[in-house]
């Protein structure tokens, strides 16, 4: 069953088709998202519309059409909101805004639909995926695979195995948690965000905005150190 989540009609169709085939809907997992990796001032805003269409509306549309069915089964919505929802990661301003909107949307929706429908928000850090393998939206609005862009954007942050992230999400849903943070060490960033935001700003500005004497972002320079990828990335990202 396929569909374009940025199109409302497609979202309605695949929910309707699910009910037609299975007769009920117990869970809705919203995972759609597409990121970019360039500074806001370098952007062509028209090319960034798909980022918002997929990452924000691509979650809202299926939720709208799934809710009546989830109410009948007292089902759950699991939302991949990303740490980008609350971490100001440079070079991803529109993507971050979309994820922040998603997180706030579902936090608000929870008040409107619980206890009839459960909502679990998940904010993964960098996880093994098409994006962390280098698939980003370009300034021209095209999705391309570019490992150099990946090295700049993901940089020296450890990347979680996709399977481990999926297990944490399923476990959170089974336990009825409101929120799942994976990997858990990202909770440290919450403390900096609240109590020492200047430190967090300094680190991100140094890594992503400032450049070395060779004109490279520091994230890229770090990843050029021999063995860096082997120590930080899953095997699928080391090619």
TrEMBL record:
Family annotation (PROSITE patterns): ADH_SHORT
Record Pfam families: adh_short
GO molecular function annotation: oxidoreductase activity
Gene Ontology terms: cellular component: cytosol
Keyword Nucleus: no
Keywords attached to this entry: Oxidoreductase
Family: Belongs to the short-chain dehydrogenases/reductases (SDR) family.
UniProt protein name: Uncharacterized protein
The species this protein was found in: Ceratopteris richardii
């Amino acid at each position: 069953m396929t569909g374009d989540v940025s199109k409302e009609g497609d979202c309605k169709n695949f929910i309707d088709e699910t009910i037609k085939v299975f007769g009920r809907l117990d869970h809705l997992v919203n995972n759609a998202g597409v990121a970019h990796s360039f500074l806001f001032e370098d952007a062509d805003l028209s090319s960034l519309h798909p980022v918002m269409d997929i990452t924000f509306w691509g979650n809202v549309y299926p939720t709208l059409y799934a809710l009546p069915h989830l109410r009948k089964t007292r089902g759950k919505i699991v939302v991949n909101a990303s740490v980008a929802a609350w971490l100001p990661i440079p070079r991803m301003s529109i993507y971050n805004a979309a994820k922040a909107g998603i997180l706030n949307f579902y936090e608000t929706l929870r008040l409107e639909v619980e206890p009839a429908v459960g909502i679990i928000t998940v904010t993964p850090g960098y996880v093994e995926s098409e994006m962390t393998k280098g698939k980003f939206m370009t300034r021209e609005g095209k999705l391309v695979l570019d490992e150099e862009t990946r090295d700049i954007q993901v940089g020296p942050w450890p990347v979680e195995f996709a399977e481990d992230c999926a297990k944490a999400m399923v476990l959170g849903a089974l336990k009825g948690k409101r929120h799942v943070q994976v990997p858990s060490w990202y909770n440290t960033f919450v403390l900096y965000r609240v109590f020492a935001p200047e430190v967090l700003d300094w680190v991100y500005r140094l890594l992503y905005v400032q450049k070395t004497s060779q004109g490279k972002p520091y994230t890229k320079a770090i990843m050029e150190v021999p063995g860096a990828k082997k120590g930080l990335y899953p095997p699928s990202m080391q090619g």
